[in-house]
Each structure stands twice: as structure tokens, then as C-alpha cells.
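Troubleshooting log. The previous structure file for this entry was overwritten by mistake, so regenerating from the original sequence record. Sequence copied from the archived sheet and checked twice against the printout by T.R.
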Amino acid sequence: MTAIDTPPQAPPPARTTSPFDLDDDAGYGRWRAWKLAYRPVSTAALTVAIADPRALRPGERAALLDRISRASFAVYRSPVIAEDKDIPRLLGAQLGLHRLDANWLADEDGISSIAISKATDGRGGFIPYTDRAIRWHTDGYYHPAERRIRGMILHCVRPAASGGVNGLFDHELAYLRLRDLSPAHVRALTQPDVMTIPARTDDDGVARAAQTGPVFSVDDDGSLHMRYTARTRSIEWKDDATTRAAVAALEGVLEGVGGGDAPGVFHLRLQPGMGIVGHNVLHDRTGFNDDPAHPRLLYRARFLDRTEPPAEAPWRNG
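Regenerated output below.
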């Protein structure tokens, strides 16, 4: 085949305009006004009662997607308390979440059983599988760009005897507060080399290569993705004054919401049949005390997809 016979290459998909474009102050302003006016302000406003997460009714599905569109996540409450890993899988599929992230600590079906684990199964020592507190983070911050975690479900089968309270903070609100402080902070945290997670090694050598990337990035559909951990070990920040100032500002934002009374942060202790579904928002967890006879068990499903968006972004009509 000659060059003239070579079929033309398909053009890359057009990038959707985004309120997270640092060069579009007007678009950001419309989105910001809408976000602050319509975000839920209480856990009750975020919570949807559903009969069975495996088979949503149309109104239940619409209510979940509405909360997710406004707060980046929703809380659901159901009477289904069975140990059934189809719950997160089927719930996700009904909301547009199909591509499970089959990480190395997940079960064979790609869904993780979050419970205290001993070192003999490979999970021991990793904080989600202990009773220790977990600081603010988004899931998969150590993944390469092609495996960004965009959606997640956390479903409770059994809570701990005490403790184990989850904190949730919309990553879009974290962006908003940081951009209001200074767009330069956001620009610094969008640098492709701003945050590096060093390689993880085991007895066989390098188990996971070092991963370098931005904190904030914008997908082709205009959605915001955040990659972050508040850990101070096993993380390397770009060593310049601009980055240090931006990281300190972000830490200040997160410290400001840590008390539980700040607008936008929610603290809840999931009960049997309850769960969290939505985008990959910032979250943390307090330490807990387990009951060996009824150990804490949650199912976690992480997805490369986002939940289905509204037909038209409402902020555009500002």
C-alpha cells in the first residue's frame, strides 16, 4: 500500500469544554456558582433509600445519579444485608460502572473484601486490611494514568464493634477551594511530574514501578480526576517552591474540613445494607475495634468508569 492509499487516521476525540480549564474563568464561575448552590449540605440529603441495590427502581436510580451529579457521590440505605458480592457489581452496572479494577489485593472477581487480614494472605500490613486509621486519599493514587480509578462503591455487610467512621469530601470542592485561594496552586498540582509514588518491591523484586503524575487532571469529557494521598511516607513531591506552596495549601484545605463541621465534608459509619457510590472522592477512615465473632466486612469495587452523567451539564445554562 502506497502512502496515498493509506487510510486517514481517525482524529482524536474533541475535548469537551470544562469548568476546570484554568484559562476559562467565565466557565469556572458558572460552575462554581451552581456547585455551591446545589450541593447537598447534609448526610440526609445525600442518602437514598432503595429496596434492593441489585435491582434499582427507576426513581431510585435517578435519585442516586442526581446526588452524584451534585456531590460526586451518594449514600444508599437498603434492607439487603446478605454476604453477596453481586451487590456492588450489579449496582455499579446499573449506574454505568462496568470496568472493574482488578488490583492485586482484590478477590478473583475483582471486588475486594475489606476486613482485618493477617500477613499470610499478602494483605496484612496494608492499611485498609488493618484496624488502623486511614488519612485523606483517593483510590488508586499509585496507578498509572491508563488505570485511573474514576468510580467506586463501598458496601457494608458488617460494621466494626466501634469506630470505622468514613469521612468523605468531594474532590471538586477541594479543587474549588484551592482555586479560590490561588489558581497558581491548581496549576502547580496539574504538572505531570508533581507527585511520584516510589516503586514497591517484594522478595521477587519490583512489584510495582514508580508512578509519576499530576494531582489534578481533566478527562476528555471535561470531568475532574484527583490523585492524592495525605501520607508523608512513600511519596515524593516535586522539589520547588511553587509545588511546596501548593501542597501546603491543599493540606490546609483538608485540615480545615477534618473536624466534621466544615461545609462539604461528611462523616458516617456505614451500617449493614448501606453503601457509598460515586466518583473517586477524597475519603478517610477512623480506626476501629473489631468483634472477632462478627468481624467488620465491607465490599469495595473500584472502576475505571464514571457513573453516567446527566444529559447536559446544568451549570452550562448558569
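The longest strand covers residues 151-158. Archived copy saved in two places this time.
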